[in-house]
Amino acid sequence: MTPETMTALGTWGPIFVMIAIFYFLLYRPQKAAQKRRMSMLDTLEKGNKVMTIGGIYGTITSIDEKIIKLKIAENTVIEVSRASINANITQDKQG
After folding, report:
1. What percent of the chain has pLDDT over 90?
2. pLDDT single digits (tens) 16-44
3. Do β-strands 85-88 and 49-52 pair in parallel, antiparallel, or remain unpaired?
């Protein structure tokens, strides 16, 4: 290798290593988690027990493109955003 190649590698090498580290430690796991969450939201159906981001547990009584109605107590139904569902408890118990 020529001295110019070694200098360029010494200058740009650490930057490429940092980019690779950020990709494998931050970006890729975040994308995988986002994909799992979208899959969970897509498989929601009436009757599933779910937990919202705020920690409210309920059973889905009606589901729309953006709004979900949750029965949280006898004669108490609330509307929440579909994006506010944090976990599908029914799916977790089955899987």
Report:
1. 79
2. 999 999 999 999 999 999 999 999 999 99
3. antiparallel
Are 18 and 28 within 8 A, CB to CB?
no
From the CA atom positions of the chain, what is the Rg in Å? 23
For residues 59 and 57, give the distance between their C-alpha atoms in angstroms, rounded to a whole number: 7
Q: Are 80 and 87 in contact (CB under 8 A)?
A: no
Q: How far apart are CA 5 and CA 39, in angstroms?
A: 47
The H-assigned helical ranges of the chain are 3-22, 28-42, 89-94
Nearest alpha-carbon partner for 60 in 73, 52, 70:
70
Amino acid at 27: Y
Tell me: pLDDT of 11 over 70.
Answer: yes
Q: Which amino acid is at 78?
A: I
